[in-house]
Amino acid sequence: MLKTSKSTLAVLFASLLSMPALADKVSFSNELNTQGETLVLFKVQNTHFPGARVLSDGSLTHLERAMQVNQFDGEEGKMLEVLAPAGSQLNRILVMGLGDGKLTDGELNNLGGKLADKLAAHKDTRITLIAEGTPNAANLAAEVAHGAKLKGYEFGRYVSKEASERELRFALTEAKAASAEFARLSAVEAGVALARDLVNTPAGDMTPEDFAIEAKKLKSLGVKISVIEPKGIQKLGMGALMGVGKGSLRGPRLVVAHWEGANGAPIAMVGKGITFDSGGYNIKASGGSMSHMKSDMAGAAAILGTVKAMAMQKARVNLVAVLPLAENMVSGDALRPGDVVRTAEGLSVEVMNTDAEGRLILADGMWYARTQYQPRLMIDVATLTGSKVRALGREYAGLFSDDESLIAGLTASGAAVGEKLWRLPLDKAYGDELKSSIADLKNTGAEGSAGASSAAMFLQRFAGEQPWAHIDIAGNALSSSEKPLSPAGATGFGVRLLSHWLTGQAGN
Q1: Residue 208 confidence (pLDDT)
Q2: How far apart are CA 168 and CA 338, in angstroms?
Q3: How far, in Å, CA of 451 to CA of 457, rounded?
Q4: Which positions ≥6 away from 248 have C-beta within 8 Å?
């Protein structure tokens, strides 16, 4: 667990409850009463019903009859809604099934998201949730609340909307423990909200310069922020980042965000930050797909959100984020298919496809992270390839690494929070496809080959000797429909996964 002081948790908890982007107010009380308009109870299958102790005899009889008639026994995710009997101070009683009660944090989050949807259908503003008597009640209360808050996210940059006044009061004797855990999760939630806000913002309002401005706001949390502009990028010899960005009037940026919460060599995270991707001269054929290309900086957004999550909870980790940012545009100055760029690593790259630009900017970003910070390990995150979507769809992100410990840790964290990873192959055969007759390598593999793996093999050339993992989140970062924990739009995929994994690294 992250080691944070009681005073830090108290300040963090108090400051997060009133955040405007995450409207519902959450509190935890050790008073087991039914005050409010809606009462939420939880039930494990085939067990005694823990909500019985807070209900009057009449309400309990009414509820048990409804459960019997509806054949409801607490199946995971199932909900039963019952209007409160006459004379009750309540409007309704909701019962949520916990299945066998052995739920991961991610599964509890999903229950919270489902509950948030249910509550949104009513106008009740005072909700009491009886967590007492459930398995690991403090964790359940905190994780369900976390899920409800994640699902309640709204992108409000362009639409004015009154904040909800709904209060969720979780009642359990371990209220203090639940409150402390929720404070930590609220920092993660704030990181997710930042990532979603960045990705949801149209590309015209989220240029590389705009992204850098947003990153600078983390200085107030103690994060060290530096921004390298085009002249500095050119001086560093970052011909790949400069090459991709030169087609835009705005020019590229390199943002470095450093949360130095511990001593020793840092963990480096490098995020693809293409703030808009036209495909360059290999222009994207579908106008529909191009309209979604504001999300091609979701890797950088997820990593910046993770930095915010670590800084808000004063995590004992040394984390440096290197975020190469560019617009991939079409102009008289843009890269042409067949051009050769030279990376800061010194390797020359024949650009066979200008729409395979993400790996180019990551190459220079990974070089910078390695040479300037000598990290103990490195992870890059990117919406990198359509090939990954064809291989895994949108449920899993692709994971590439030769380090078994890193693979195991990241996969376990993904499973815990519900941001799932699936390992895909790194193989010399895919690397051989990158051979060029005029340069050190090409930026694409053979036509019809495993494009996600050849892209990963390209990045491996710039990864260095320390442990390294590449996470391809293409298809995971943006959704056209509601997800269990997010409305349609940006999902913030990666923040919860990386934050959970970093929790295990704290103090190491």
Answers
A1: 98
A2: 58
A3: 10
A4: 326, 327, 328, 329, 331
CA dihedral 459, 463, 465, 467 (to 10 degrees): -90
Sort 448 into a burial class: Cβ within 10 Å, 0-12 / 13-18 / 19+: exposed
Q: Which residue has the tokens 């009683």?
A: 93
Residue 475 and residue 422: Cα distance in Å, rounded?
A: 14
Angle between helices 298-312 and 175-200 (to 10 degrees): 150
* 487 contact partners, CB below 8 Å, separation of at least 6: 151, 153, 154
- The CA distances from residue 317 to 13, 187, 267, 344, 470, in Å, are 20, 15, 8, 28, 20
Query: What is the four-CA torsion angle of 129, 135, 138, 143, rounded to 10 degrees?
Result: -70
Q: 10-residue block means of pLDDT along the chain (508 residues)?
A: 43 40 79 88 82 74 88 93 86 94 97 94 90 94 98 90 82 96 97 98 97 98 98 98 97 98 97 97 80 95 98 97 98 97 98 98 98 98 97 97 98 98 97 98 94 98 98 96 95 98 82
Closest CA to 423 of 408, 434, 439, 441: 408
Q: How many CB atoms neighbour CB 405 within 10 A?
A: 10
Retrieve residue 162's tokens.
Answer: 């009154």
CA distance 285 to 279: 9
Q: Which residue has the tokens 């051989």?
A: 432
- Give me the pLDDT at residue 187, please: 98
Going by DSSP bridges, is the β-strand pair 273-277/318-328 parallel, antiparallel, or unpaired? parallel
DSSP collapsed to 3 states, 232-258: HHHHCCCHHHHHHHCCCCCCCEEEEEE
Query: DSSP E strands: which ranges in 47-198?
Result: 79-83, 92-97, 126-130, 167-171
Residue 496 contacts residue 417 (beta carbons within 8 Å):
yes
Non-local (6+) Cβ contacts of 438 within 8 A are 340, 350
Q: Indicate if the alpha-carbon torsion angle 191, 194, 200, 205 is positive or negative.
A: negative
CB 98 within 8 A of CB 79: no
Using a 10 angstrom Cβ sphere, with 0-12 exposed, 13-18 middle and 19 or more buried, the burial of residue 305 is buried
- Longest alpha-carbon distance in the chain: 84
Catalytic residues: 284, 359
CA distance 189 to 71: 36
The pLDDT score that the predictor gives to residue 507 is: 60
Instruction: Identify the three-state secondary structure at position 224.
Output: strand
The residue type of 301 is A
